[in-house]
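Lecture notes, part 5. Sequence design as translation. It can be helpful to think of inverse folding as translation between two languages: the language of shapes and the language of residues. The source text, in C-alpha coordinates, appears below.
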Protein backbone atom coordinates (compact mmCIF):
# COMPACT_ATOMS: atom_id res chain seq x y z
CA UNK A 1 0.00 0.00 0.00
CA UNK A 2 1.24 3.47 -0.84
CA UNK A 3 2.13 6.18 1.65
CA UNK A 4 -0.98 8.33 2.05
CA UNK A 5 -1.53 11.77 3.59
CA UNK A 6 -4.61 13.93 4.15
CA UNK A 7 -5.41 17.07 6.12
CA UNK A 8 -8.37 18.73 7.80
CA UNK A 9 -8.86 22.41 8.67
CA UNK A 10 -9.61 24.12 11.97
CA UNK A 11 -12.97 25.84 12.44
CA UNK A 12 -14.63 28.81 14.07
CA UNK A 13 -18.22 29.31 15.07
CA UNK A 14 -19.65 32.56 13.71
CA UNK A 15 -22.98 32.44 15.58
CA UNK A 16 -24.81 30.13 17.95
CA UNK A 17 -22.21 28.34 20.08
CA UNK A 18 -23.77 26.72 23.17
CA UNK A 19 -27.37 27.33 22.04
CA UNK A 20 -26.58 24.79 19.28
CA UNK A 21 -26.16 22.14 22.01
CA UNK A 22 -29.80 22.81 22.97
CA UNK A 23 -31.11 22.33 19.43
CA UNK A 24 -30.91 25.86 18.00
CA UNK A 25 -29.16 26.64 14.69
CA UNK A 26 -25.56 27.84 14.45
CA UNK A 27 -23.15 28.97 11.74
CA UNK A 28 -19.57 27.74 11.42
CA UNK A 29 -16.78 28.00 8.85
CA UNK A 30 -13.54 26.11 8.26
CA UNK A 31 -10.24 27.88 9.01
CA UNK A 32 -7.80 26.65 6.37
CA UNK A 33 -4.86 28.63 7.77
CA UNK A 34 -4.46 25.93 10.43
CA UNK A 35 -4.52 22.21 9.69
CA UNK A 36 -4.25 18.75 11.18
CA UNK A 37 -2.37 16.32 8.93
CA UNK A 38 -2.13 12.55 8.96
CA UNK A 39 0.36 10.31 7.16
CA UNK A 40 0.11 6.54 6.89
CA UNK A 41 3.01 4.35 5.81
CA UNK A 42 3.04 0.56 5.53
CA UNK A 43 4.82 -1.62 8.11
CA UNK A 44 5.78 -5.29 7.61
CA UNK A 45 2.74 -7.62 7.69
CA UNK A 46 1.83 -8.74 11.19
CA UNK A 47 3.25 -5.63 12.89
CA UNK A 48 -0.20 -4.12 13.46
CA UNK A 49 -0.99 -0.43 13.72
CA UNK A 50 1.27 2.04 15.50
CA UNK A 51 -0.04 5.54 16.26
CA UNK A 52 2.48 8.37 16.51
CA UNK A 53 1.56 11.90 17.63
CA UNK A 54 4.88 13.78 17.93
CA UNK A 55 3.19 17.01 19.14
CA UNK A 56 2.25 15.26 22.38
CA UNK A 57 5.19 12.80 22.49
CA UNK A 58 2.86 9.86 21.94
CA UNK A 59 3.82 6.56 20.29
CA UNK A 60 1.89 3.34 20.97
CA UNK A 61 0.68 0.16 19.34
CA UNK A 62 -3.07 0.39 18.71
CA UNK A 63 -3.64 -2.96 20.43
CA UNK A 64 -2.29 -1.52 23.72
CA UNK A 65 -4.26 1.76 23.75
CA UNK A 66 -7.44 1.94 25.88
CA UNK A 67 -10.81 2.51 24.22
CA UNK A 68 -11.30 6.02 25.58
CA UNK A 69 -8.20 7.37 23.83
CA UNK A 70 -9.50 9.63 21.02
CA UNK A 71 -6.60 8.83 18.63
CA UNK A 72 -7.17 5.10 18.98
CA UNK A 73 -10.94 5.58 18.78
CA UNK A 74 -10.56 7.48 15.48
CA UNK A 75 -8.55 4.58 14.03
CA UNK A 76 -10.88 1.87 15.35
CA UNK A 77 -14.05 3.66 14.15
CA UNK A 78 -12.48 4.34 10.74
CA UNK A 79 -11.39 0.71 10.27
CA UNK A 80 -14.82 -0.53 11.38
CA UNK A 81 -16.46 1.74 8.76
CA UNK A 82 -14.34 0.28 5.96
CA UNK A 83 -16.09 -2.96 5.08
CA UNK A 84 -14.59 -5.55 5.22
CA UNK A 85 -12.60 -4.13 8.12
CA UNK A 86 -8.96 -4.39 6.96
CA UNK A 87 -6.12 -5.90 9.02
CA UNK A 88 -3.62 -3.10 8.81
CA UNK A 89 0.08 -3.06 9.50
CA UNK A 90 0.93 0.60 9.30
CA UNK A 91 2.38 3.61 11.09
CA UNK A 92 -0.20 6.38 11.45
CA UNK A 93 1.40 9.72 12.25
CA UNK A 94 -0.72 12.74 13.09
CA UNK A 95 0.45 16.33 13.53
CA UNK A 96 -1.43 19.59 13.95
CA UNK A 97 -0.75 23.30 14.16
CA UNK A 98 -4.25 24.01 15.49
CA UNK A 99 -3.99 25.35 19.06
CA UNK A 100 -5.55 22.84 21.48
CA UNK A 101 -8.65 23.69 23.58
CA UNK A 102 -9.11 27.18 22.10
CA UNK A 103 -12.36 26.73 20.19
CA UNK A 104 -10.65 26.00 16.85
CA UNK A 105 -11.78 22.39 16.64
CA UNK A 106 -8.36 20.79 17.07
CA UNK A 107 -9.76 17.47 18.33
CA UNK A 108 -12.29 17.16 15.50
CA UNK A 109 -9.68 18.16 12.91
CA UNK A 110 -7.20 15.55 14.15
CA UNK A 111 -9.87 12.83 14.05
CA UNK A 112 -11.05 13.96 10.61
CA UNK A 113 -7.53 13.94 9.18
CA UNK A 114 -6.96 10.43 10.58
CA UNK A 115 -10.27 8.98 9.37
CA UNK A 116 -9.89 10.57 5.92
CA UNK A 117 -6.37 9.23 5.54
CA UNK A 118 -7.33 5.72 6.66
CA UNK A 119 -10.22 5.69 4.15
CA UNK A 120 -7.86 6.79 1.35
CA UNK A 121 -5.15 4.33 2.44
CA UNK A 122 -7.46 1.31 2.30
CA UNK A 123 -9.19 2.75 -0.80
CA UNK A 124 -12.59 2.96 0.84
CA UNK A 125 -14.59 6.04 -0.12
CA UNK A 126 -16.05 7.83 2.91
CA UNK A 127 -18.63 10.52 2.08
CA UNK A 128 -18.34 13.81 4.01
CA UNK A 129 -21.45 12.81 6.00
CA UNK A 130 -19.98 9.41 6.88
CA UNK A 131 -16.73 11.13 7.86
CA UNK A 132 -18.67 13.58 10.05
CA UNK A 133 -20.57 10.69 11.70
CA UNK A 134 -17.39 8.77 12.52
CA UNK A 135 -15.71 11.88 13.94
CA UNK A 136 -18.86 12.62 15.98
CA UNK A 137 -18.44 9.27 17.74
CA UNK A 138 -14.89 10.31 18.69
CA UNK A 139 -16.02 13.82 19.69
CA UNK A 140 -18.22 12.23 22.36
CA UNK A 141 -15.03 11.05 24.09
CA UNK A 142 -13.61 14.60 24.02
CA UNK A 143 -16.75 16.56 24.88
CA UNK A 144 -19.43 14.30 26.35
CA UNK A 145 -22.44 15.98 24.72
CA UNK A 146 -21.21 17.63 21.51
CA UNK A 147 -23.80 19.25 19.27
CA UNK A 148 -22.12 17.88 16.14
CA UNK A 149 -21.23 21.25 14.62
CA UNK A 150 -17.43 20.89 14.89
CA UNK A 151 -17.19 17.49 13.18
CA UNK A 152 -19.70 18.62 10.53
CA UNK A 153 -18.00 21.86 9.46
CA UNK A 154 -14.57 20.22 9.49
CA UNK A 155 -15.60 17.04 7.65
CA UNK A 156 -17.49 19.01 4.98
CA UNK A 157 -14.75 21.69 4.84
CA UNK A 158 -17.23 24.43 3.93
CA UNK A 159 -19.36 27.07 5.70
CA UNK A 160 -22.42 25.43 7.28
CA UNK A 161 -25.77 26.31 8.76
CA UNK A 162 -26.08 23.56 11.34
CA UNK A 163 -28.96 22.42 13.50
CA UNK A 164 -28.92 19.16 15.43
CA UNK A 165 -31.05 16.37 13.91
CA UNK A 166 -31.54 18.37 10.68
CA UNK A 167 -29.81 17.71 7.36
CA UNK A 168 -26.72 19.88 7.02
CA UNK A 169 -27.23 23.07 4.98
CA UNK A 170 -24.50 24.93 3.14
CA UNK A 171 -24.05 28.56 4.16
CA UNK A 172 -23.45 30.69 1.10
CA UNK A 173 -21.53 33.91 1.57
CA UNK A 174 -22.78 36.91 -0.42
CA UNK A 175 -19.71 39.03 0.18
CA UNK A 176 -16.34 37.79 1.49
CA UNK A 177 -15.88 38.25 5.24
CA UNK A 178 -12.44 39.04 6.61
CA UNK A 179 -12.08 37.84 10.17
CA UNK A 180 -9.26 38.29 12.64
CA UNK A 181 -9.13 35.47 15.17
CA UNK A 182 -7.55 36.46 18.50
CA UNK A 183 -6.31 33.80 20.93
CA UNK A 184 -6.39 34.60 24.67
CA UNK A 185 -3.79 31.85 25.15
CA UNK A 186 -6.03 30.33 27.82
CA UNK A 187 -6.86 26.66 27.37
CA UNK A 188 -10.51 26.00 27.97
CA UNK A 189 -11.71 22.43 27.43
CA UNK A 190 -15.17 22.50 25.85
CA UNK A 191 -16.60 19.75 28.07
CA UNK A 192 -15.95 21.83 31.20
CA UNK A 193 -17.72 24.95 29.93
CA UNK A 194 -20.59 22.96 28.43
CA UNK A 195 -20.96 20.89 31.64
CA UNK A 196 -20.95 23.95 33.88
CA UNK A 197 -23.52 25.68 31.68
CA UNK A 198 -25.68 22.55 31.69
CA UNK A 199 -25.77 22.62 35.52
CA UNK A 200 -26.78 26.31 35.55
CA UNK A 201 -29.37 25.66 32.83
CA UNK A 202 -30.85 22.76 34.79
CA UNK A 203 -31.16 25.00 37.86
CA UNK A 204 -33.01 27.70 35.91
CA UNK A 205 -34.24 26.31 32.58
CA UNK A 206 -36.72 29.10 31.72
CA UNK A 207 -34.10 31.81 31.98
CA UNK A 208 -31.43 29.95 29.98
CA UNK A 209 -33.88 28.71 27.37
CA UNK A 210 -34.88 32.32 26.72
CA UNK A 211 -31.25 33.26 26.09
CA UNK A 212 -30.66 30.20 23.90
CA UNK A 213 -33.76 31.02 21.87
CA UNK A 214 -32.48 34.58 21.28
CA UNK A 215 -29.13 33.16 20.14
CA UNK A 216 -30.89 30.78 17.75
CA UNK A 217 -32.87 33.67 16.28
CA UNK A 218 -29.67 35.68 15.84
CA UNK A 219 -28.02 32.77 14.03
CA UNK A 220 -30.98 32.48 11.64
CA UNK A 221 -30.99 36.25 11.00
CA UNK A 222 -27.20 36.26 10.60
CA UNK A 223 -27.49 33.59 7.94
CA UNK A 224 -29.66 35.93 5.83
CA UNK A 225 -27.29 38.85 6.43
CA UNK A 226 -24.27 36.73 5.42
CA UNK A 227 -26.02 35.38 2.34
CA UNK A 228 -26.94 38.89 1.23
CA UNK A 229 -23.53 40.37 2.18
CA UNK A 230 -24.83 42.94 4.69
CA UNK A 231 -21.76 43.58 6.82
CA UNK A 232 -23.39 46.12 9.15
CA UNK A 233 -26.12 43.68 10.10
CA UNK A 234 -23.61 40.86 10.62
CA UNK A 235 -21.48 43.13 12.85
CA UNK A 236 -24.51 44.17 14.88
CA UNK A 237 -25.54 40.53 15.40
CA UNK A 238 -22.00 39.65 16.53
CA UNK A 239 -22.20 42.27 19.28
CA UNK A 240 -25.61 40.99 20.37
CA UNK A 241 -24.46 37.36 20.34
CA UNK A 242 -21.43 38.28 22.48
CA UNK A 243 -23.69 40.05 24.99
CA UNK A 244 -25.86 36.92 25.25
CA UNK A 245 -22.75 34.77 25.71
CA UNK A 246 -21.72 37.08 28.55
CA UNK A 247 -25.18 36.64 30.09
CA UNK A 248 -24.99 32.84 30.05
CA UNK A 249 -21.61 33.13 31.79
CA UNK A 250 -19.16 31.79 29.20
CA UNK A 251 -17.14 34.93 28.47
CA UNK A 252 -14.14 36.04 30.55
CA UNK A 253 -12.24 39.25 31.28
CA UNK A 254 -9.59 38.27 28.74
CA UNK A 255 -12.16 37.61 26.00
CA UNK A 256 -14.06 40.82 26.79
CA UNK A 257 -10.80 42.78 26.69
CA UNK A 258 -9.96 41.41 23.22
CA UNK A 259 -13.49 42.07 21.94
CA UNK A 260 -13.32 45.71 23.18
CA UNK A 261 -9.80 46.18 21.78
CA UNK A 262 -10.94 44.98 18.35
CA UNK A 263 -13.91 47.37 18.31
CA UNK A 264 -11.75 50.29 19.52
CA UNK A 265 -9.27 49.50 16.72
CA UNK A 266 -12.07 49.84 14.16
CA UNK A 267 -13.38 46.27 13.75
CA UNK A 268 -17.00 46.30 12.63
CA UNK A 269 -18.08 43.60 15.06
CA UNK A 270 -16.55 41.11 17.48
CA UNK A 271 -17.53 38.22 19.73
CA UNK A 272 -16.06 35.23 21.47
CA UNK A 273 -16.06 32.06 19.37
CA UNK A 274 -16.35 28.48 20.62
CA UNK A 275 -16.88 27.36 24.19
CA UNK A 276 -15.54 30.52 25.90
CA UNK A 277 -13.87 31.08 29.31
CA UNK A 278 -10.66 31.31 27.25
CA UNK A 279 -9.79 30.25 23.73
CA UNK A 280 -10.55 32.56 20.85
CA UNK A 281 -12.58 35.55 19.81
CA UNK A 282 -13.29 36.74 16.27
CA UNK A 283 -13.48 40.25 14.81
CA UNK A 284 -15.10 41.17 11.50
CA UNK A 285 -12.95 43.79 9.78
CA UNK A 286 -13.31 46.03 6.74
CA UNK A 287 -10.89 46.27 3.81
CA UNK A 288 -7.32 47.00 4.87
CA UNK A 289 -8.10 46.82 8.61
CA UNK A 290 -6.89 43.31 9.43
CA UNK A 291 -3.30 44.30 10.34
CA UNK A 292 -4.23 47.16 12.66
CA UNK A 293 -6.91 45.09 14.42
CA UNK A 294 -4.47 42.17 14.80
CA UNK A 295 -1.89 44.59 16.31
CA UNK A 296 -4.47 45.96 18.75
CA UNK A 297 -5.38 42.40 19.77
CA UNK A 298 -1.73 41.57 20.48
CA UNK A 299 -1.42 44.76 22.56
CA UNK A 300 -4.51 43.71 24.52
CA UNK A 301 -2.99 40.33 25.35
CA UNK A 302 -3.66 38.00 22.39
CA UNK A 303 -0.91 35.38 22.10
CA UNK A 304 -1.70 34.68 18.45
CA UNK A 305 -3.87 36.11 15.70
CA UNK A 306 -5.00 34.48 12.47
CA UNK A 307 -6.54 36.39 9.58
CA UNK A 308 -8.97 34.32 7.54
CA UNK A 309 -11.36 35.13 4.71
CA UNK A 310 -14.73 33.41 4.44
CA UNK A 311 -16.30 33.08 1.01
C1 LIG B 1 -17.72 24.16 20.58
O1 LIG B 1 -16.95 24.41 19.42
C2 LIG B 1 -19.09 24.71 20.42
C3 LIG B 1 -20.05 24.46 21.57
O2 LIG B 1 -21.32 24.94 21.11
C4 LIG B 1 -20.15 23.00 21.93
C5 LIG B 1 -20.83 22.15 20.86
O3 LIG B 1 -21.47 22.67 19.96
O4 LIG B 1 -20.72 20.92 20.99
C6 LIG B 1 -19.69 25.24 22.81
Amino acid sequence: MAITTASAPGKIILFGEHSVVYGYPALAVPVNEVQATCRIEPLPAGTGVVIVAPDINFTAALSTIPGNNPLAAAVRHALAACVPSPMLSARITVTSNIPIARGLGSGAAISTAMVKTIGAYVEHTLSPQKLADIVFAVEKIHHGTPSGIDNTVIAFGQPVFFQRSHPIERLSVGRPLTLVIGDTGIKSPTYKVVGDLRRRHNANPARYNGWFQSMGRLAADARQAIESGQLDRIADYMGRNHALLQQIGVSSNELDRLVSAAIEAGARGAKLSGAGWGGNMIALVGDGQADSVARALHQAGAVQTIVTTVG
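The translated text above is only one of many valid answers, since several sequences can fold into similar shapes. The two ends are 37 Å apart (CA to CA).
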